[in-house]
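for the recovery benchmark. tokens below, seq after
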């Protein structure tokens, strides 16, 4: 019996037919994440892959798609309901509160690179396991925090050289504004209820705001005339949103105010944002986030507000591939090509010494002909090859070939490690 990977999942491999999800691309993106997180002083957190189901129900909301349709939920052997993490904000806050992190450091800025699990129909850009780079910034409400988080996300895409992105922003206001607007929206939608999609009809009763981001073409026609939440914000919410827009303008971050952007999770308050990318097709959201006042308190933590985002690494990589963004090739520094048994023994010993000196080294065993060895060295993109046969062992004069320049030099056996170390220092500088 042969096994196949379950639908909606994929392997990340160093080479093979799947050019999209190569380890090299993945590591390249992860390195950029680590660097940018350091530049903005966000600290990494890692939480477990599953949590108690109730955590997600309480935070994402019972009417959200995640809770309603997409969770991987199971009973453990003690019949407790557990769920594979569908998103990163709730587990982060659970860990933050449980470990009293507010007492240890300030400012409270965290990031994660984690797999998430959502049961949905797989398609381009939509997987059952996806990975997110997310950040969460807790603290007293200040629109500068919102601006910093949005700037970080846009800089991340910029460092990756992604093009054709649009930043959409909106405000869902505070609780008072939202409750007032819900009434106004319901009044408007009431007259169109029959013509709304089945999904939106259900949402009308459970969570009418979510109808605003329906993708159904008929719904969208109706929504063109829908009232805007921005006209129904109370004065503090309005002021907050205007201040954020003005900071973004001053920072030269272009944005589009999208009055129908509400996002699919219940915990958002005030600012919400999403970045779309035109090459991604129907799953065009590259990343999104927003402010969540009240969520930390709701999970029995201190009364802290917060703002964060999550961006899907798969979608980022798919955009890089579609836009032909080059990354450094995964190369090899030095490879030993021993041509006899004795040379294999010597090559093994020297390469071990080099590795202990933290020099990237490979040995190819069982190569009968030098030409074959050199072909393999080229395929591995090796910078140098050491050719070692009976003759070189006898004369104690080893051959080191610069594969790129097609030049070779002869080095006395006793100087070999020192010579390779010098070459390595030059190579590592580039
Ligand atoms: P989200 O919008 O549900 O937000 O997901 C964030 C990003 O994850 C999306 O923009 C998309 O790039 C990616 N994504 C989501 N689902 C899938 C999927 N099935 N396959 C591939 N990629 C996917 C959140 O999860 C919030 N926790 C973000 C946040 C953090 N808000 C505040 N802090």
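predicted aa per position
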């Amino acid at each position: 019996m042969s096994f196949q990977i379950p639908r909606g999942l994929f392997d990340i491999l160093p080479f093979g037919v799947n050019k999209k999800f190569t380890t090299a691309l993945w590591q390249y993106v992860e390195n950029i994440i680590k660097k940018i997180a350091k530049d903005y002083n966000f600290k990494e957190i890692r939480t477990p892959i599953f949590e108690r189901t109730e955590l997600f129900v309480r935070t994402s909301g019972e009417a959200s798609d995640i809770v309603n349709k997409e969770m991987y939920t199971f009973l453990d052997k003690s019949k407790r309901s557990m769920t594979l993490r569908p998103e990163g904000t709730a587990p982060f806050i659970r860990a933050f509160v449980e470990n009293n992190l507010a007492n240890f450091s300030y400012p409270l800025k965290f990031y994660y690179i984690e797999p998430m699990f959502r049961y949905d129909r797989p398609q381009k850009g939509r997987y059952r396991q996806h990975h997110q780079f997310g950040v969460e910034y807790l603290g007293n409400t200040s629109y500068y925090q919102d601006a910093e988080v949005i700037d970080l996300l846009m800089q991340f895409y910029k460092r990756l050289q992604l093009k054709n992105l649009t930043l959409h922003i909106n405000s869902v206001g505070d609780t008072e504004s939202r409750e007032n607007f819900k009434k106004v929206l319901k009044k408007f939608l009431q007259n169109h209820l029959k013509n709304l999609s089945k999904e939106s009809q259900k949402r009308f009763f459970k969570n009418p705001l979510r109808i605003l981001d329906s993708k159904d073409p008929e719904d969208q026609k109706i929504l063109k005339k829908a009232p805007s939440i921005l006209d129904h914000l109370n004065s503090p919410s309005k002021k907050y949103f205007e201040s954020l827009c003005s900071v973004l303008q001053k920072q030269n971050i272009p944005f589009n105010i999208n009055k129908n952007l509400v996002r699919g999770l219940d915990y958002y308050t005030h600012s919400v944002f999403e970045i779309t990318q035109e090459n991604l097709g129907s799953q065009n959201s590259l990343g999104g986030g927003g402010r969540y006042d009240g969520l930390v308190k709701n999970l029995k933590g201190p009364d802290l507000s917060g703002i964060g985002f999550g961006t899907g690494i798969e979608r980022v990589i798919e955009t890089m591939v579609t836009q032909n963004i080059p990354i450094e090739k995964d190369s090899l520094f030095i490879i030993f090509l021993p041509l006899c048994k004795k040379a294999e023994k010597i090559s093994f010993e020297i390469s071990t010494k080099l590795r202990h000196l933290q020099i990237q080294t490979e040995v190819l065993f069982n190569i009968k002909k030098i030409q074959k060895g050199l072909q393999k060295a080229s395929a591995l993109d090796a910078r140098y090859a050491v050719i070692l046969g009976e003759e070189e062992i006898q004369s104690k004069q080893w051959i080191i070939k610069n594969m790129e320049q097609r030049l070779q030099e002869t080095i006395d056996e006793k100087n070999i490690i020192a010579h390779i170390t010098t070459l390595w220092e030059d190579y590592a500088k580039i």
